[in-house]
Amino acid sequence: MSVSLAGLRVLVVEDEPIVAMTLEDLLADLGCEVEVAGTLEQGLAAAAACALDAAVLDVNLNGRESFPIAEALDARRIPHLFATGYGAAALRDRNALVLEKPYRAADIRAALETLLGP
Fold first, then answer.
1. What is the pTM of this model?
2. Residue 102 counted as domain residue
3. Residue 18 maps to which CATH number?
């Protein structure tokens, strides 16, 4: 049984504009409403203020780690996953959900279903 993603409000924090736009398009095709942040500061502001159901965080934001954004999301109990080309070895929390780059729409759907599933 799959989780419905229609209407899901997803924060995407990604510093590479082409990657951010591609992920935004893929999520929109899945029926999600997307908020995009390209810097650590923008991500922190969105994590603190936006109405969100989930988030996809690039680990490396122009040389800065996105872990403070993850902590802000944790404080609000907003589930999130990390998108990285470095694998789980790049994470502090080895139990965090990782979406390996490069990814496809099916990978994103599966990762969000895992993140939000029962």
1. 0.92
2. no
3. 3.40.50.2300
